[in-house]
Every structure is written in C-alpha cells, then in structure tokens.
Amino acid sequence: MDTTSQTPPPYQLGDTDEECRYPVRVDDQHHLGLIFRWHGGWFAIPAGQSEALRVGDGGTGKNTAALYLVSEYNEGRIVPQDPAADAPEASRALIGPVPLLHPRLPVNDRNTEHALVAMAALTAYLWTPKGGYPGSDNPWFMECELCHWRGPRYWSHLRGRNQNPPSPHRHPGGCIGADQVRARIAAYQQ
Fold first, then answer.
1. Would you say 23 and 66 are in contact if contact means Cβ atoms under 8 Å apart?
2. What pLDDT digit, counting tens, does each position of 165-177 carry?
3. All residues at 6 or more sequence positions from 70 whose CB lies less than 8 Å from its CB, including other chains
4. Fewer CB near the terminus (10 Å): N or C of the chain?
C-alpha cells in the first residue's frame, strides 16, 4: 500500500494533559475541544463546553472523536478558542498527593481495593501517578522516576501478568535499558 498519497487528517492532536485528554486543533490556530478514551469509548468535549459526549467506541479510535469535533466546527456549532486554551491543563503542576480514585471512577470497595494495589505497585515500580486510579484499562498520566518521561500509560500494561514480572519496556520514547530496569527494580527481575 502506498502511504505517500494518503491525505493527512484535517486536524492536529496536541499532547495529552494530566487527565489524558488530547486537545484537537485545526490550522494550529483554532482549538476545537478535547477528546479522551474512557472504558472503551471515545468522548469529546467541544470548546467552550464542559460536558463530554460519547462519540465513538474503542474500535473506532481517537480519529472518530477528533473528526466529530471537526464536523461540529465545519457546521458552525463550535466556536474555536485560541490554542493557548490547551496550555493551562497541560502545564498544571502536581501539588500535594493525588486522590486515590479518578473522579470519573465510582467509589466502591472493588475500585478502592484495586486502586490501593495499583498505587503500592507503582511505588515499587518507580512510577509517579499524576492523578487518581482510573481503572486498569483507562489511560493514567504518569511520570517515570527513572528518566522523568511523562505521559499516559495503562495499568493493565504496566503490571505483570500470569505470575510474570512487568515488561522492562516502560514507555514510548525510550527509557533506560532493560538490563538497567531489571537491576534497579526488583519487581522487574526474571
């Protein structure tokens, strides 16, 4: 398949904020809103609004959510904002301890139990969460304590499975080598 003739999407995605939401822009001048994934669905928050709308499922991906905002903009239903509207969320600093649970995750015994297990493991695995536990299959903004990379990760990808240790591949963009990860973090040793 020749990928050189593919048309680029009619939008740009910015870096995720600490709520793992992507800002959507057109022409690098118009902020159309935010998109995010939550429990298998993709949601959009149009610029100037606060309510999230489910606009796609996990199979359709973030492209569907971003194109929803572009369509709403093209139909005149979104008044774009200045791209600086992206900055406050993306540059927010962590002050004090993070909550145990993400605000969208219901407070119940099961979620609390899973959050306590995840938070304890993150400490052992040298990750710093920048928000409350969102559930195992939702993006969670974190900082790698080994190289200070920051971005969204999924608890289901970070934990070990079937009595195996976690993968020494910690995040995109590279980290310290797998041998160094295993040497510095006991949980990663085989």
1. no
2. 888 888 988 889 8
3. 10, 11, 24, 26, 32
4. N
Residues near 129 by beta carbon (within 8 Å), at least 6 away in sequence: 98, 119, 122, 140, 141, 142
Q: At 185, list the tokens.
A: 């973090």
User: Quick count: other Cβ atoms within 10 Å of Cβ 7?
Assistant: 5
Residue type for position 146: L
Q: Which of 5, 185, 12, 141 is nearest to 83 (CA)?
A: 12
* DSSP one-letter string for 61-115: HHHHHHHHHHHHHHTT----B-GGGGHHHHTPPP-SPPPSB-TTS---HHHHHHH
Q: Where are the domains of the chain?
A: 12-90, 109-188
Compute the distance between CA of residue 164 and CA of residue 80 in angstroms, rounded to an integer. Answer: 48
pTM for the model = 0.72
pLDDT of residue 129: 95
**Residue 7 in tokens:** 């048309």
- For the chain, count helices (H), then strands (E): 5, 8
pLDDT tens digits for range 41-99: 899 999 988 899 999 887 778 889 999 999 999 999 998 887 665 554 444 455 557 88
